[in-house]
């Protein structure tokens, strides 16, 4: 009898991680969430469906923190690490996923935790992500490895925000490879959520989705607010799903809400005569997160306690005690993050001070509804919408923040108000999914879809990509050479495909050069090789440049080499540009530039 074949789905979340698997053979397979063994105290273990995305570095006196597969483990990830966050915030790494997409930080260097005490070695966001994935792999093998293939031998689908840029995707892959995960595919989280819904409803999806529908996926997790629009059409009698639009990367989610609640509680304590230092404030943020999760998860709970240690205090009686009340939670989250606004309102841009503390580049406007209105307006014209806004007909929620019925209802009612003013019908909510586990389940389901079993969402690149080409003109004082944008990857170009550009260009080898790349999520009609000499600034955005030295290898430094370009969208969603010389000096001579390294 042949061994059962499985595909693994992983949700590597800002707040929690989850893993699911699905059998690849047979016609009626369903995804199965794998409970993850983890420390809940220094000496006790439990299997839980979620692995909190926290890493705790203990003191020497607390080591080791043994696991069944590693008796000498010198750190902890999961529930115990999360529980230590309020008491020892300087020893707990959190929000590593948000740091992976920081545009200016060196995400391979030791950054976390920011409040680390003197002498504690910090780790990189990549290493923290690697440790979470490593734990998932080890826990799976400890439970199933003796009866079947090891985790590293299985095909793994790992999810990322749809708005993750190529650099963040590449760093996520780097963390997976460090954890021994080689057979890897990346999937956007909103698509995974829809795959999970499709699995849940089964054949009934044909009654729920109709040609002409547009499904709006609103995914609000611990670190990001992610919007995607997926169109439903019909081809030869079969339904087809195609991603229409992806929102910009918005670092706005549960972490921001925790900070808002913490500042509210801090002001209240200050009014009562209790001032908190920065270490206690970090502890308060973690305490507010735990209180928020309790209040959102337990409908009958009127308030949740928060305990803040005093500096150096070892006695419970020496701690600062307060509460977070449900009424405060509703007011702060509803009015602050889900305000009822008109459809034409846009996120406010805030000027920044010249000096700022190093930290995450959070969105300057906390109004998620304003960001959603901007997304729908931006993509209406791009997809041929008939009104001021893109008109979704169905709404699918995802992410831990959206577990609150209060928040779901506010967002739905606000969206319906916009659609009514634009002459469109109210949305139909696609419900029933477990918002904590849907992404992991959907990722596992995609493992089957990749083998031809199930309805596939057509995706491809979420932007059209362009490379900047300077004109060869005489120098003119005070004027930059004219810049033409050449399309190297059109919108929707599928992963694993390559295109060759006909135009002859030239590259400089043997010395430092800078490649300028541009992207547009609204220009849908540009074909490969299309040259843009004039373009609107709100249509095309410049990406961080890539500065490299293309090796001369037998050519003179500074030589200008005539080339043609080949563009490839890799399996992980990065854009690879190859410059192929028209007169190569040796077989297979070419130079490669990949967008995944930008900003490093």
Q: How large is the share of residues in beta strands?
A: 25-35%
Q: Write down the CATH class of the largest domain.
A: Alpha Beta
Supply Rg.
25 Å
CATH homologous superfamily of the largest domain? ATPase, nucleotide binding domain
Q: Strand pairing plus helix content: what structural class?
A: alpha+beta
CATH domain fold name of the largest domain:
Nucleotidyltransferase, domain 5
Largest sheet: 6 strands, mixed
**Low-confidence runs of at least 5 consecutive residues:** 352-356, 596-600
What's the architecture of the largest domain, going by CATH?
A: 2-Layer Sandwich
What is the count of helical runs? 12
List the helices and strands and how they pair.
Elements: E1 6-12, E2 16-23, E3 32-33, E4 36-41, E5 44-48, E6 51-52, E7 55-56, E8 76-77, H1 79-84, E9 92-93, H2 96-100, H3 125-144, E10 156-160, H4 166-178, E11 184-188, H5 189-201, H6 205-208, E12 214-220, E13 225-235, E14 238-246, H7 254-271, H8 278-297, E15 303-308, E16 320-325, H9 326-337, H10 368-380, E17 394-398, H11 405-421, E18 428-429, H12 438-449, E19 457-458, E20 464-470, E21 483-489, E22 497-500, E23 505-508, E24 512-515, E25 517-520, E26 531-532, E27 541-542, E28 546-549, E29 560-569, E30 575-581, E31 591-594
Parallel strand pairs: 1-10, 10-11, 12-17, 14-19, 17-18
Antiparallel strand pairs: 1-2, 2-3, 2-6, 4-5, 7-8, 7-9, 12-13, 13-14, 15-16, 20-21, 20-25, 21-26, 22-29, 23-29, 24-28, 25-27, 29-30, 30-31
Helix pairs in contact: 3-4, 5-12, 7-8
